[in-house]
Design a protein that fits this description.
The protein has 140 residues and is an alpha+beta fold. Helices cover 27% and strands 34% of the residues. A five-stranded mixed β-barrel has the order 1-2-3-5-4.
């Protein structure tokens, strides 16, 4: 037989609704704020003007929450400038033609991206065209 202090049990039952309410409040306010801040890219990128940019792939970083693609793109003087583009997560690309071996350093890419409003060399990729043997292969 388990003995329970009836005063403790009454205290715990009275406090449980408060704990549940606090948990629900935290779940409805704190978590969604983080989700919306992370995925509300309209605030940081010009989604009204997709831009076509071509350059040489330097590296791909397969990481969560987004895959990062670094491309050297020549500026107006022909000087290569490093750009950082982000795509969706690796989990989303699992069912597509993308894999860690799809892109290789030195590949020629054309990206369609939405650029950062800040003017930094950062963009969110809409699509990627990989040029192999002079022929385009749309991979995303």
């Amino acid at each position: 037989m388990i003995l329970v202090n009836k005063h403790f049990a009454a205290f715990a039952l009275r406090r449980r609704p408060l704990a549940v309410l606090l948990f629900l409040w935290a779940g409805m306010t704190v978590v969604p704020c983080d989700i919306f801040a992370h995925h509300f890219f309209k605030a940081g990128f010009d989604v009204t003007k997709p831009v076509f940019m071509s350059g040489t792939l330097k590296s791909v970083v397969w990481t969560n929450p987004h895959i990062l693609i670094y491309v050297d793109i020549p500026d107006s003087n022909g000087t290569p400038r490093r750009w950082e583009f982000q795509t969706v997560s690796p989990a989303v690309l699992k069912g597509t033609r993308w894999s860690k071996d799809t892109l290789k350093t030195g590949d020629h890419l054309t990206v369609v991206a939405f650029l950062a409003l800040s003017g930094h060399r950062i963009g969110v990729i809409e699509s990627v065209v990989l040029w192999r043997a002079g022929s385009p292969v749309t991979i995303f």
